[in-house]
Every structure is written in C-alpha cells, then in structure tokens.
From TrEMBL:
Keywords: FAD, Flavoprotein, Signal. The keyword Transmembrane helix does not apply. The keyword Metal-binding does not apply. Transmembrane segments: none annotated. One of its GO terms (molecular function) is oxidoreductase activity, acting on NAD(P)H. InterPro entries: Amino_oxidase (IPR002937), FAD/NAD-bd_sf (IPR036188), RNLS (IPR040174). One of its GO terms (biological process) is negative regulation of heart rate. This is Renalase, FAD dependent amine oxidase. Residues 1-17 form the signal peptide. It comes from Pelodiscus sinensis. It comes from the Eukaryota. Residues 98-332 form the Amine oxidase domain. GO terms for cellular component: extracellular region.
Length: 343
C-alpha cells in the first residue's frame, strides 16, 4: 500500500486528503497528515476560551465568499458544506463590507476550522499534531521525513501544503532537489502580515453595538472587528460572547518582530478608542500571522509545483493560487490530479 504524507492540516492539506480518498476509492492508500500546530485549521483557525471551550473565536479567515466566477466550478464543494451544516449564509450586519455583485457570504456556526475538520473526517487519514517537519531526504527510492522530535519516517509520496517561505526553510536533500528556476518562482511569492486578537467573555456579558462586524478605515492599527458569535449567528445566554480584532497590514509589518505582549497592549489601546466601554474580557489570545494572505502568488497560479517525480514530491497551497477558500480548492484539485497521473 502506497504511503502518502501530507504536511499541513490546513484547508489545502485536509481537502487534498479528502479528495484523494474519494477520487481513488479502489486504490488502497495510507494517508498521513502532519502539522506542527496543536490542532487542525492552519489559517482557518478557531480558538477556544481557556475558561469555556464553547466560547470560540475565528482568528484567521472570517467568512467564505462564493463569487460568481466560482459558482459553477466549485458548486459541489459549497453544496456539500451547506448540506452538512458546516456553512450557513451570513445574515448578520457587517459594516463597510465591499461585495461583488452576485456574491454570497457564508459563516461557520462551529468556527471556521470546522471546514478543515469536516475534510479530515471525510479523508479518514491518520492525523498527527505537534509534528514539525524539518528535513526531507531521498533514501532508496522513498522519502525520509524528519520532524523536530521523534524518529524519521518513510513515505512513497510527500505533499507539502505549508506556506511557501516555510517550504524554503526545509533542510535535507530537498534543498538540492528544488531546481534553480523553481526556487526563483518560490522566492517570488509574498504574503501580508497582521496580528489578530481574540477576546473571550463570560456568559451574560452584553456587547452593545448594532453590527456583527465592521471594517475600520480610519485607524492606524485596527482594520476589522467582529463580535464573533454574533457574526456566526450563535448568540446564547449560556455561552459568553467573543470579539476578534484584526490589525491592518502596515501595522502588522511594522510590529512583526515586537514582543507579543507589547503589541497586544497597543491593539487594546486602539480598541478602547474605537469601542469605549467595551467590557473587560475573561481572557485574550494574541495571534501573529507572519504569513497572512498571499500578495503575490507563483506566476500564472499553477495550483501546484512538482519538485520530484519518482518518488513524487509536490507542493501546493494558496501561494500557488490565491488566498481564500476557492484558491485552496483549486490548489487541492491540481495536487490530486498530479498524484493521480503519477501513481
Ligand atoms: C487574518 C486572515 C484572514 C483571512 N480571511 C479570509 C477570509 O475571510 N476568507 C477566506 O476564504 N480566506 C481568508 N484568509 C485566507 C485563508 O485563511 C487561507 O488562504 C487558507 O487558510 C490557507 O490554507 P492552506 O492550507 O493553504 O495553508 P495554512 O492554513 O497556512 O496551512 C498550513 C499548515 O501547515 C502547518 N505547517 C507549516 N510549516 C510546517 C512544518 N514545517 N511542519 C508541519 N506543519 C507545518 C501550519 O501549522 C498550518 O497548519 C485569511 C487568512 C488570514 C491569516
């Protein structure tokens, strides 16, 4: 049985695993997913309050937008998530949102990471967290993959769905396997950076604003605020509300190497100016997104890049298309097509 390793349990990696399973039902494959984080989601991250795991906040992606250009092409993906209750139409008011005509927005009642979890369940893959890939070697026609802790393991096929700069940080034979022309393309990919704060409140706290989310245009630090449980239409008297704050990209870049506590204090100061009287949260999580959204993808958005054919080593993710749900679907489809033609 061929052993496939997918590195990255974000949207691209989880969907790759699910598509591999559904499109090759007669082919027995052992699929493993490794992620350096403690849970699934990647940039589709949902955080939980340490006081109450039912109080959650989407720190990365906020909602899914179906644009007319993808309405037909990705219809089955949206229908599947709607049928399983993973996606629901966004009905709460979002101030300052610019909508393309014919677009539809969706939220995830269980948090944005529930999309990734849905695909992981469909894939029936073996998922391992706290597995940080550091080196990849070619040994006897197989890939030997090393992680920060624990023994290396061998695989017939490796798929990398981690942000492009993190592909370039991997060590071992992979460094020489990446051709010079590919390296140049990979090095041309760029990402924005920003911070996100998640504020978690106790049950019964009332946040008195007429909107569920708001884009801010006149603040040097804050770009977006969401009353996250209201945005997801899951307000309840038993579970406290949560607030998500995204900084602007210029603020994120200017403070990228700062101490997180200092950055958190600055963001909270600005938040106090925008929302005076906001109650004190029970806990706060500060998340730095060094690789937030792709600002420049691989030229011509190929969806994947084949680094080696026998054995197969492929990379993909939003750096090979664009940074949203549809970009990740396109990449996952391209990766799976490459695997199907080379298996
Ligand atoms: C603040 C923010 C807001 C956004 N808003 C939206 C939105 O509203 N709508 C939308 O559609 N999209 C949005 N996006 C973009 C969207 O989240 C991404 O395009 C998408 O999640 C990328 O998925 P991915 O699987 O390609 O990569 P990732 O989600 O980055 O997954 C890669 C995974 O690889 C793991 N990893 C990295 N290096 C290693 C290693 N060496 N070993 C093991 N594991 C490793 C990481 O832990 C991560 O889990 C937003 C993103 C951010 C950050």
């Amino acid at each position: 049985m061929a052993r496939v390793l997918i590195v990255g349990a974000g949207l691209t990696g989880s969907l790759c695993a699910a598509l591999l399973r559904s499109e090759l039902p007669q082919r027995p494959l052992s699929i493993a997913l490794w992620d350096k984080a403690r849970g699934a989601g990647g940039r589709m991250a949902t955080s939980r309050s340490p006081h109450d795991p039912r109080c959650t906040a989407d720190l990365g992606a906020q909602y899914i937008t179906l644009r007319p250009a993808y309405a037909q092409k990705h219809r089955s993906f949206y229908e599947d998530l709607l049928t399983h209750g993973v996606l629901k139409p966004l009905t709460a008011p979002v101030e300052g949102m610019v909508m393309e005509e014919g677009s539809h927005n969706f939220v995830t009642p269980q948090g944005i990471s529930s999309i990734v979890k849905h695909y992981l369940t469909e894939s029936d893959a073996d998922v391992f967290y706290d597995y940080h890939v550091t080196q990849i070697y070619l040994r006897d026609g197989k890939w030997e993959v090393c992680k920060k802790t624990g023994s290396p393991e061998q695989f017939d096929i490796v798929v990398l769905t981690i942000p492009v700069p993190q592909i370039l940080q991997l060590e071992g034979d992979i460094v020489n396997i990446i051709k010079e022309s590919q390296k140049q393309q990979l090095e041309s990919v760029s990402y924005s950076s920003r911070y996100a704060l998640g504020l978690f409140y106790e049950a019964g706290t009332w946040i008195d604003v007429p909107w569920a989310a708001q884009y801010i245009t006149n603040n040097p630090c804050i770009r977006f605020i969401s009353i996250d449980n209201k945005k997801r239409n899951i307000e309840s008297s038993e579970v406290g509300p949560s607030v998500v704050v995204h900084t602007s990209v210029p603020f994120g870049i200017a403070h990228l190497e700062w101490n997180k506590e200092e950055v958190q204090a600055i963001i909270l100061d600005h938040l106090e100016n925008i929302m005076p009287g906001l109650p004190k949260p029970a806990s706060i999580k500060c998340q730095k997104w060094r690789y937030s959204q792709v600002t420049k993808a691989i030229p011509n958005s190929p969806g994947q890049m084949t680094l080696h054919i026998k054995p197969l080593l492929v990379c993909g993710g939003d750096g090979f298309t664009h940074s949203n749900f549809d970009g990740c679907i396109d990449s996952a489809i391209c990766i799976v097509e490459t695997l199907k033609t080379n298996l």
